[in-house]
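Predict the 3D structure for this chain.
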Amino acid sequence: MAQINYRTVDVDAYDPEASANFDLSTLRPTVVPASSSDVQTLVGQVRQLLRGGDSEGALRGVLENAPYGADDKAKETYAGAVVEILQSIRQSEMSPLLSRIYQSDGGVELIDVLMKYLYKGMAQSSQPSASASSKQITPQATGFSQISSRGGGEGGGQAMSVLLSWHEKLVEVAGPGSIVRVMTDRRTV
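Done. Predicted structure below.
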């Protein structure tokens, strides 16, 4: 009788449901490719709705047509349009608007897309700009260096405040489940 070291046997090779025998590409959701010109056209249409006073229609338009398959530059342009729309909506209109979107058909998906854009906007606002690194560094008498002028503050503070207000209202309406779904979704905006 042969001596078999059972510790070296690959038991996953015999299990049909093991991850080694599973096609991992099926875990990635299908994403429709989008060109930069398509994204620009869509942003133009949404801005037209916003200029016409239909902020709910503009918000629904950007959330229903998120360009998951676009390149990074197109995604940045689209995210800028989403933040522009969010900034144009008054704080008193946030909760009723989110409630209407959440209770509509496909509302959970739209709320999740909005949460993705909120997180993307927060990430963009917190990153230092490229222009800050190209500024002259001035040594100060205190021993610290000053990169930008005093009081020449950051323009992202107002945008961050708006995004945080939207995040608060969104969690209030949809609950923390939206955060979990966004964190686990492989599609990025």
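The first strand starts at residue 138 and ends at 139.
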